[in-house]
Structure formats: C-alpha cells, structure tokens
Amino acid sequence: MIIFNEGRKFMHKEIADLNGKLIVSCQALETEPLYSSFIMGRMAKAAMEGRACGIRANSVSDIREIKKNVELPVIGIIKRHYADSPVYITPTINEVDELMEVRPEIIAVDATNRLRPGNLTINDFFGQIKEKYPNQLLLADCSTIEEVVCADKLGFDFVGPTLLSYTEESKNLRIDSNDFEILKTILRKVKGKVIAEGNIDTPEKAKRVIELGCYSVVVGSAITRPQLITEKFTDAINLIQR
Asked: Beta-carbon neighbour count of residue 72 at 10 Å?
C-alpha cells in the first residue's frame, strides 16, 4: 500500500513503519561460523520476534531466504571485491541487477567519494541506477559528513554514516563521540531520512540516536555475531585474571 510522498517518491507503508524503529543486520561472511542463508533466515525470524521492524542483509541467496521467514522490509546489499577499487558494498550496476531479482525494499550502496570499479564516481553510479530503476529506494552508505551531504543532494532516499571509521578519511572518527556530535551535524545539514548505523552496540546508543532524530537505527554485530559478543565477555574476564 502506497501512503505518502515527501517530494522524492512515493513510499510504501512498510517503509514508513521503520520510522523510529530498529533494523537488524543479519549477515555472516564466508569465514564466520554462522555463514549460511538458512541461518540468516532464522536469524531474521529471531530479530522479528524481538520486535525488529526491518532487516539488512547481504547477497541474493540470504535475502531470498529471509523473505521466506519474515514479512519485514529488507535493506539489500551485495559485498563484492574488485581489483580496481576499494568499494565493495554494492559497487556496480551488476550487483544492483542481481538484487532486483529478489526486490529488497531498499538497496544500499557505498556512497563514499572513492571511485567505483571502472573509475565511476558516486554521481555517475547514482545516475546509472536511477536511469535503470527509477522507483527503487536507495540508501547511501557514507563515511564522512561531507559524503552524507553530497548523497542527500544527489537524491538518495536515505543516508547514513554506515562506513564511518572504516575508510581512510574517517579512520580516526567514532560515531558516538561527544554524544553523537557527527550525527547531530548530519541531521542539521540534510533533508533526507538518516539511518544510523555503525558501532551502535548497546540499547542505550540505539535509543539515543532515535531521540536525536534519526529515521531508523541499524544494529548488527551486537545482536547477530555471537563470536564477537562472546569476545566482549571473555575479554572482560581476562582483564581480571591479568
């Protein structure tokens, strides 16, 4: 059911239902113990039972399985490495084409100022996507305030500092520094919907970014990567033993 238009395009009710809510990132890399589309589908079901209102997922096979298990909007990505670019989150139109086979409600792409494979800028890539899939909702994964502002001006439906601290330009920054000062600045500078993601690893942090005015918050490793959750406990105990 299409319910509203805020100057960019009509959005579906399930997207509106993400407003002020939690999105859980259900992903596992090939090197991780939970790597399996079946497991990611069950992980998404567990997230839904915990009252998450959306899922972020990587790969066509995972998204297909997740959609069998839950009726929640999905932010879809494909992580793929190319020799001529450091960009790996939905880096080319080929990955967008693949994702359209399973129709995620939102597709997220790396929207940093780094060149994509084939030396495409984010402006070029955004134009490619919109020409081929004009009605597809898009999320810009950025690493700096400037990149978020540029993505917002380009016309992305959602923007966020997903890659903050993961790029050379942002490696010394933290999203939660000074009570989320970076997010506060972003919220002042953009008109689009801000989805907070990246190192938001406690319920208190998730609550805070929604209080500040973010449209939604994505939490991943703190919920869906048990090996990393376990490490926090063991590291704390080992500090006592030392």
From this structure: 21
pLDDT tens for each residue of 165-206: 999 999 989 999 999 999 999 999 999 999 999 999 999 999
Reported as a single tens digit per residue, the pLDDT across 205-215 is: 999 999 999 99
**Buried/exposed 79-94: b ≥16 CB within 10 Å, e otherwise:** ebeeeebebbbbbbbe
Determine the 3-state secondary structure of 168 from DSSP: helix
Residue 182, C-beta contacts closer than 8 angstroms, at least 6 positions apart:
145, 161, 164, 173, 175
- Asked whether 26 and 35 are in contact (CB, 8 A), the reply is no
Q: Tell me the domains of the chain and their CATH numbers.
A: 2-241 (3.20.20.70)
C-alpha span between 80 and 77 (Å, rounded): 10
3-state secondary structure (DSSP) of residue 233: helix
